[in-house]
Amino acid sequence: MMRWLLLFLGGALLGGIVHLATVIIMPRTATQDAYSRLARIAPVNTVISLPAPTPESATMPFMDPAFATAICRYDLSHGTLKLTVPVSLAYTSISFYTRYDVAYYAINDRAAGRRVIELELMTVDQHNQIPEDEDVTAADRLIVDSPTLTGLIAIRALAPEAGLMPMAQSTIAAAQCKQQDEPKPAR
Amino acid sequence: MRLLLGTLFALAVAAVVGLGATYLALTRGAAFGALTIGSWTAWPKTGTLDADPYARATIARTGQLPIALGDGVSFTARSDDSGKLLDGRCDVVLSGITPAARFWTLTLYNVKGELVANAINRYGFTSQGIVRHADGSFAIVMGPRANPGNWLPTGGVERYTLILRFYDTAVGVSTKAGREIPMPATSTRSCP
Known about the structure:
CATH class of the largest domain in chain A: Mainly Beta
Order of helices and strands of chain A: HHEEEEEHEHHEEHE
Radius of gyration of chain A: 21 Å
Strand order of the largest sheet of chain B: 1-2-3-9-5-6
CATH topology of the largest domain in chain A: Immunoglobulin-like
Number of helices of chain B: 2
Distance between the termini of chain B: 60 Å
Number of strands of chain B: 10
Oligomer: heterodimer
Order of helices and strands of chain B: HEEHEEEEEEEE
Helix content of chain A: 25-40%
Structural class of chain A: alpha+beta
Number of strands of chain A: 9
Largest interface: A-B, 67 and 60 residues
Strand content of chain B: 25-35%
Number of helices of chain A: 6
Shape of chain A: globular
CATH architecture of the largest domain in chain B: Sandwich
CATH superfamily of the largest domain in chain B: Domain of unknown function DUF1214, C-terminal domain
């Protein structure tokens, strides 16, 4: 009896380890996470508009139907990325996610304070390679550091009333993300 | 033989306990740093790089893109203020005021996170799309049949989830406790 109790306790302890391991491994093995879903429809380093969610179909669960959404799935391994997003009348936001769908940065139209939000996305290494004087002269240059080589940018514009949805959609349709030329090696 | 049986038993216990705990944690939405106000719960940290492993696993399992903290914060309700699960066959009233935010949206989802089909194709409200009382407060009725005022159709589904999202707000960034944040109250008014 005692023997089985000990085995049970040992098993439960091992179970705790199994639990922690599965929780930590989950993001790396998921095949239905947002990045994997979008990888099937979104080409690399291009903005695509997502269809508005309906009861029958939605790209992802829990999408906000009041927003028009566009996605840029990025890959920085061949150079930095330049993102240009015009601002809509109501509310426009740009959110950055890692390969494992964790948000690491977001900016909205008011925080950017311009009619067109322009951002450069690069890895920390690429950022360090920029010559210092260049970094200083362009004071209003917005640079975002990506913790991963690949990831997602979600561009979203609010339609405060249903009738304004076409306007929000046309705003984000004009957004662009473009790979910039490979930086020249520093001499 | 006894050793083999014993080992198999211990491994079986480990599998059941380990996988069971993972399943429960990820389906119940367990993550640290929850901000609960009435029936509403938000996990502001889930929208940042500080997201804990449970939050990361939940994000991966559901397949959603969480709202980034710099964008806004989202509150989820699965029950009314008395703890009764939200039932799409009942009339549920959401009333009161909301914390300061540039915009907010309220959306009704089924338990899988899909929008609920209805005759008027209305899936939620935005802060600009609702009718308010003179003092700025409002009431929204969730129910299967049309109601006067702000009516959010439930399509008669048994269980649903409400998500109230605040955009461009300080809620979640600076708040520690829920006392200072006014959230709308939810109560089940009538059930057939």
